[in-house]
Amino acid sequence: MIDLGLPRIPQRGRIFSSVFIDTFGWGLFAPLAFLYFSFGTGLSFSAIGSAVSAGTLASLPVALLAGWLVDRFSPKSVLVASNLVTAVGYGLYPFASEWMLIAVATFLVMAGDRLYWASWPVIVVDLASGRKLDATYAAVGTIKNFTVATGALASSGLTILFGRGAADLVLALNVVTSLVAAVLLAGVRVSSNRPAKEAGGGGKEPGWRAAFQDHAFTGFCFSFMLLTFAWALPATILPAYAVEIMKLPGWAPAFFLGVNSVAIMLAQMPVTAKVSHVPRQRLIVRAGLIFAVVFAGLYLVTKLPATTAIVVLVPVMLIFTLGEMISLPAANALVASSAPAAIRGRYMSLFQLSWGISGLFIPLLAGFVLDRGALWVCAAFGGIALLAAVGVQVTAYRIAPADTDEEAAEPHGEPASPGSGPDAGLAPVTTKDVT
Predict the structure, then answer these.
(1) 197 CB contacts (<8 Å, ≥6 apart)?
(2) Which of 94, 108, 140, 170 has a CA-to-CA distance to 292 between 20 and 30 Å?
(3) DSSP 8-state symbol, 412
(4) Does the global pTM surpass 0.90?
(5) What's the mean pLDDT when you consider all of the chain?
(6) What three-state secondary structure class fits 414?
(7) Angle at the Cα of 257 from the Cα atoms of 252 and 262, rounded to 5 degrees
(8) What structural domains does the chain harbor?
């Protein structure tokens, strides 16, 4: 078996293979996801966009439901359900010929996404109990970037071969990969570290009130939500900024997005290992400062000739990518390891909701400032990143350590020895497992 440095968590074969297969299917369909509805419906792009937005907005409360489901049942059950719900949603796409059906199909797909992100970080804690959470989250990010890119390239090849007929083929493959991932995950043996319910116990179990009353945590979620505005740079802000404001060639945005994706694929895991001795809170604060500096640099680059600007933007994008790489695994691990075990699903769903909320406002803010020029863009998004760094500094260090054995079993930055920890009896699968 080839070892690519993936964390040695129990059953990593099934875990990482499911991520690989599921994300490859999404990568296949992603380039055609929005266009698909235009092929056979006759609806305008405005109508399709409004239906997709409505379905996405309606799915936001599912994140809170997902947190309760994770705590009530298990993260594994919700994770398997997420793949099944997603498969049903994509299965409706060929029949979505009207506005309402497009909204329903989008709702199901996005509901599956909410279920996934509420359960996936929690199941990692159960499987990697006492081990390096940051490394596992980093590995998942690396696999996702690689497989989305690979799937997108395969989709391009199929489109060249079959034209529009490729859309139905890649959609079918996307449904199949979701179902295969569900089967793989259903076979994962999870030893949960949640406290068992006491028979006849009179005490009330903690619930949503406990999560919302944790003001340090909710403040951190709000601050991190502000930080996620910066993540819009490669795919949302830079395309219009580079072409319309900086007057760069049309290929430039795709090039910079490629720089970002390739850097994450190659460097995410080594970077995470390199900074493993740094407190997670500090890494997230540094990311906010990095993003603020990047947007300042983005403004200064507008003063350069186009050719020089393209050259200078490469290190700017690499610095931005560094901020992404140091903060995202740290943030996931910080929340997952600090949340009380009995309501970890609720904590993770609140945290993941920060992405959903910012996603509603980023297009509005981006459109507003892009119409007003480079200074507006960089001042707005750079200022939000700086504000996020201050907010994380104030709140993240106040998050109380939870009843998890992560720190005791594995000091931050020191890998657990093979076979140690409560899950040692769950041997890693030895089949060819994306390693």
Answers:
(1) 205
(2) 140
(3) T
(4) no
(5) 83
(6) coil
(7) 125
(8) 1-191 (1.20.1250.20), 207-404 (1.20.1250.20)
